[in-house]
Structures are given as structure tokens and as C-alpha cells.
Amino acid sequence: MTQRLHLVFGGELVDPQTNVFRDVSKIHIVGMFPNYETAFQSWKAEAQRTVDNAHMRYFIAHIHRLRDEGKSGSPTEELGV
User: Fold this and answer.
1) pTM metric for this prediction
2) Is the pLDDT reported for residue 76 higher than 80?
């Protein structure tokens, strides 16, 4: 069975119309979750907790999509970088 990891993170954006963080060092890492359902619950809780700040945004990153063992590696990965 393939594990489908999801990362929930967020922070304050420079402009609510973009996805550029004001200060990358202050990104809030909520956590890593084993499935979309639990990631969504955590994302929703953080989004609702910060609803009064229009510049705060939380995201779900589909970590399992970053690497597929069945596909060849990227040129950078092949160089060992």
C-alpha cells in the first residue's frame, strides 16, 4: 500500500492575492499527515483559527506527488545534489 503523505503549513503573506510569504523563517509547520482527510481537518482548523488576519494562509502540500519511485530521477537528483 502506498503511503500518501501531506504537509500542512502556512504563514503571513505579503499580499493576499499572491502566495509569497512575508517572512519564510516564520512559516508555521502544522505537521505531516498520512492521508488527505486528516490533513484537511488540520488545515481547516488553522485556517479558521486565523480567519481574522486576511494575510494568513495555510496550504496542503501533497508530499507523495514529489517523488514517485516508478519514475526516473530528476537531473539534479542523478548528480547527487
Assistant:
1) 0.78
2) no
In angstroms, how far is CA 21 from the centroid of its own chain?
A: 13
Q: Residue holding cell 488553522? A: 46
Q: Where are the alpha helices (DSSP H) in the chain?
A: 36-49, 75-78
Pairwise CA distance, residues 79 & 72, whole Å: 13
**Amino acid sitting at position 10:** G
Longest dimension (CA), the chain: 46
Q: What is the pLDDT of residues 29-59, one digit of tens each?
A: 999 999 999 999 999 999 999 999 999 999 9
Residue with cell 517523488: 67
> Measuring CA to CA, which residue among 11, 31, 8, 9 is closest to residue 22?
11
